[in-house]
């Protein structure tokens, strides 16, 4: 995406000379300081990558998958032994439990690396990580085009602006590029459609207010930030033409696990006859889970509920407590929207009714997406 007249992905490898040897590091955009600061940091070890994923310097299911792949490449650079790679895989898998792309990418890297001699594993690792990143870009571009067709149909005969409501950040910052839920919006805007986005703030980490708003602003897409509780009101008054969200995991039955609060938007959309779409790349579909109750829901630090970070009037970043001292808090990071509330799932292969996701299997390369289907 274009930031300050320069094209960026959210993650990319860099060559770093170490004496007579050439080594790689990984550059990322530090999302914990956006929108107030633009900071690129470099990671030199798998431990640094684990920390970046855990601290949400990189976040969003597709980007977490690509980051995990590059984490495995960093591990292979440290030592290509199977023992070290297995240990690195375990640390990466434990960094965030809900986003299935992380597991998918780590398992794909391990399948690739363990069948080649140790001396070649580092070379293969960087090559495969680059492939995963490039695939993510192509997948998201395709999601954008399929979603664009949905938006164009909604706009037929509608006077004025098309209004899309989204929750959390599922734009290019959540992927390697283009995004999932926002990819159709960018495609529509670039095609000349009059489109506007209602941006949920998305407590407690405010990824909507800080990240979605920032990247829409960079692209020039009109948007309005609203508090998390405003979505139902907007729908009741005919101000939302559709809801598009991303996903951190989808079951093979079409249930959508996404940022906490998504379920409430789906309920409001169903009550008001508003189409509810989920943009889901194939690597985000967990074919091994049919019952959404089996999805692990990440419980994050309760300080994210108690404390809000922002920029003070003097321009410095600061944190303030908004709850009474001694208050108990809970911080589930995700919830599950049942398939019955989902109008359509937008994938890189097209748009599918939740109950027809298995139709994708005939289009999936088993070498890339080995599937054990649960029923």
Automatic annotation (TrEMBL):
- Family per similarity comment: Belongs to the EIF-2B alpha/beta/delta subunits family. MtnA subfamily.
Source species, please? Methylobacillus flagellatus (strain ATCC 51484 / DSM 6875 / VKM B-1610 / KT)
Q: Which InterPro entries match?
A: IF-2B-related, IF-M1Pi, IF_2B-like_C, Initiation_fac_2B_a/b/d, M1Pi_N, NagB/RpiA_transferase-like
Site feature (Transition state stabilizer) residues: 168
**First-level EC class:** isomerase
Q: Which reaction does it catalyse?
A: 5-(methylsulfanyl)-alpha-D-ribose 1-phosphate = 5-(methylsulfanyl)-D-ribulose 1-phosphate; 5-deoxy-alpha-D-ribose 1-phosphate = 5-deoxy-D-ribulose 1-phosphate
Name its GO BP terms in alphabetical order.
Answer: L-methionine salvage from methylthioadenosine
> What does it do?
Catalyzes the interconversion of methylthioribose-1-phosphate (MTR-1-P) into methylthioribulose-1-phosphate (MTRu-1-P). Also catalyzes the interconversion of 5-deoxyribose 1-phosphate and 5-deoxyribulose 1-phosphate. Part of a bifunctional DHAP-shunt salvage pathway for SAM by-products.
Annotated keywords: Amino-acid biosynthesis, Isomerase, Methionine biosynthesis
- Which protein, by its recorded name, is this? Methylthioribose-1-phosphate isomerase
Residues that coordinate or bind substrate? 59-61, 96, 207, 258-259
